[in-house]
Amino acid sequence: LPFDWAQPGQMYFMKHALLAVLVITPLFGILSTMVVHSRMSFFSDALGHSAFTGMAIGAICGFDRPTLAAVIFAVVFALLFNLVRRRSALASDTVIGGFSSTAVALGIFLSTMNGRSFTKFNSLLIGDILSVEPAMIGVLAGILLLVLALWLSFNKLMLSAVHPALADSRGIQVFWQETVFSVAIAVVVTLSMTWVGLLVINSLLVLPAAAARNLARNMRQYHLFSLLGAVLA
Fold it and tell me: Rounded distance, CA 59 to CA 194, Å?
């Protein structure tokens, strides 16, 4: 690459950041297609809030890496969300709103408890891509491979999103399809939050597919345009 930082043996933090972008953005581009089709555009926003709460819990418990606590909390959040949505008559956006507001309130309460300062969590709001570590790039690359494997059953995922009752009648385990999909989003959003930032992470999960949906003429184009849109953004 024609940049000073791209020369061998120097400025590895810039190279790590570029690698992280090349791994994170395809993940968001692929997941974005199902987020838009499933009408779960605000789900990632709610997950970001839950991850923030998980960070606060990790800090209180004295974890060296609060991100681990955030991932665990976000996965539990996603599982509870699917369970409540499945067992209640409420619409998805109503359930998301309830979970999101609860996560925000709990996160602020825990982070300011006993006179603690909220400002130490400000970095989560805007993120810092230059702080990414090589090990985490490897973790995200592994998740990308798992998501690609999940997408081999994309037809089932799509049918579950468009017509759950028809999917059930075809023998598709809709609840487990939705659960795996939600957990995948939870892990990706939580791990990426410290680099992308809570304020803009939802845009990466919505805008690529929303734009691709207006341009694509078939499902292959839809996925391709969403993936390329996320990488270019």
Answer: 15
If you write DSSP's letter for every residue of 6-55 in order, what string do you get? GSTTS-HHHHHHHHHHHHHHHHHHHHHHHHHHTT-TTHHHHHHHHHHHHH
Q: Which of 43, 39, 44, 32 is nearest to 212 (CA)?
A: 32
Alpha-carbon span 213 to 211, nearest angstrom: 5
Q: How far apart are CA 34 and CA 39, in angstroms?
A: 8
| pTM for the full predicted model | 0.76
Rounded to whole angstroms, the Cα distance separating 5 from 14 reads 7
Side-chain-facing half-sphere of 129: CA atoms under 13 Å: 15
pLDDT tens for residues 139-195? 888 888 888 887 777 777 777 777 777 877 878 777 777 777 788 888 888 888 778
Q: Enter the DSSP assignment of 177.
A: H
Taking the C-alpha atoms of residue 79 and residue 178, their distance in angstroms, rounded to an integer, is 9
CA angle (127, 132, 201) in 5-degree steps: 35
